[in-house]
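Weekly modeling sync, notes
Attendees: S.R. (lead), two postdocs, one rotation student

Agenda item 3: backlog of single-chain predictions. S.R. asked that every request posted to the team notebook include the full sequence so nobody has to chase files. The rotation student volunteered to paste the first one in as an example of the format we agreed on. Action items at the bottom.

Example entry:
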Amino acid sequence: MIILGVDPGLANTGWGVVEYNNQRYQPVSFGVIKTTTEFSLVDRIYSIASRIGEIADTYHVDAVSIEDIFFAQNISSSISVAKVIGAVTQEMKRRGLDVQYFTPLQIKMAITGVGRADKNQIQQMVMLLLKLSKPPKPDHAADALADCITYAVMNSTRERMGGRIK
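Predicted structure, as returned to the notebook:
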């Protein structure tokens, strides 16, 4: 199974592609889509969703894992991120792909087993699980790779439990 992970953001959207087979992870590719304020909000969101669609097509992904929104202090940036999530979801569902959202807590638990893990701990575990020689950079790409691993962990657990968890 080839999984596309997305760490959504308006200025920087991280993406990662991981192949998961027989409880093993193989990193395929990762990066960041950047947008600038010189373009309209609509054009930035469209650009991100289109680029994620191209990545899905290029790597023939089977499933998509998107980090769900975390409402912090800045509500307006959270709303923009929610719009990115919606546009990416629509683009992926149009391709017939399974899309799942995972909260930051679910990702931390799936990757480290600790809900309060910090960014460095997540990156170290991603590096170990993907057998990388150094932590993936930039941070948004590392987060997207963590999204891929979370999809695999959660779905593997769901399958073992007979599809009973959500």
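Discussion: group reviewed the output briefly. The chain has five helices and five strands.
Action items: rotation student to repeat for the remaining queue; S.R. to check formatting next week.
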